[in-house]
Amino acid sequence: MSAFRYQAVAADGVPVAGVIEADDRKTALQLLGQRGLFPMLLETSLVAGEPAVALGDQPSAWGANLRLGPRIKRKDMTAFTREMGTLLAAAIPIPQALEGLGEQEDNAALKEVVRHISESVRKGAALSSAMAEHPRVFSQLYVSMVRVGEEAGVLPKVMADLADLLEHEDEVRSEVVAAVAYPVFVLGFGVLTVVVLLTVVLPRLFTMLQELLPVLPLPTLILLSVSRVLHQDWPLILIALVGMTVGGRRYVRSPHGAEFWDRSKLRLPVMGAVFRTAALSRFARTLGTLVRSGVSLLPALKIVEQTIGNLVLGKMIAQVAEETRGGASLAAPLRKLNLFPKTVIQMISVGEETGKLDEMLLKVADIEERHMRARTKVLVSLLAPALIMVVGALVGFMVMALLLPIFKMSRAIH
Fold first, then answer.
1. Which domain does 43 fall in, by range?
2. Are 372 and 281 in contact (CB under 8 A)?
3. Are residues 184 and 215 in the same domain?
4. CA angle centred on 78, ends 77 and 81, rounded to 5°
5. Is the CB of residue 287 less than 8 Å from the CB of residue 260?
6. Is the pLDDT of residue 215 over 60?
């Protein structure tokens, strides 16, 4: 008889933790299921008989977004998930499938992770538990869905659903990156050009102009002052920029700063609607995928709360979960919070009534993603000309500041 420490979600949505005694890991999972608990973490414990406790305000065990290590790309994870699902669908045992994928994996970091997972599985660990040992590679969303697939005996289908989810997120992300690449290039090139002119070219010209003219025009004086500051104090400016960047990142990573940043993003005049739509589409797709994979609604909402990517919206999802625990439908609390348009709420309500909530949530995700893509295209189509105009205005001001003293000298000569 062995002791296993677990963290799970009860049928009423309350997170609990404790220790359970069982002959092996599979038996422990079965015993937790009989108690109406949805296990999120199960590991060998050295202490038996520890009572289960509500997690409450303890540090959350739920994972955040899919956080890949610096050497493991998202496309590598997506390919691994798809190939793993294909091998399992072909009735290949998990250890052999992991060994095969590990041998053919080109990414050295992911190859090492797969090797560790394979060793753990061969020693008797469940696939989900072995993956949970690498939280920077496999998110809690990923691990939770794999665990559900193991318990329900539909692991190949769950891996295929995970691959679909990752591929869809990669596709949306690629479209957004491709859309903003040109405006970012225009802005970066323009800023670099202006900085080079102000720090390298213009100081020499201004020295000559000051020798020829006792009084310079106002635009030239302004440009001269900016150029002098950049040319003489660039080390201090660089240190200040680095300090502001590091300080800003630390603040954003703090609980208060992260919530302030997420709230600010939602309140932006134009981009706020895009951020909101992107987060809501992720909510609907993730929740729909979890429900379709067999996760009950309350545990699924707990997972989505941490994977939606916005703390403010995450708190709203927590309110939804709280009301759902009391017996309300999913559509009712969503309607109170005004998270989705009325038509979307109606679709979710119909999905609950017909028992096809997962299908409706995935359709909602498609609708929200289409809106996000349309808004992004409009924004980018306006952003590129706007940035070109800004860069053009800066260059035009510089040209005017240089030509004015030349015109003044020509008039003095005549």
1. 2-54
2. yes
3. yes
4. 85
5. no
6. yes
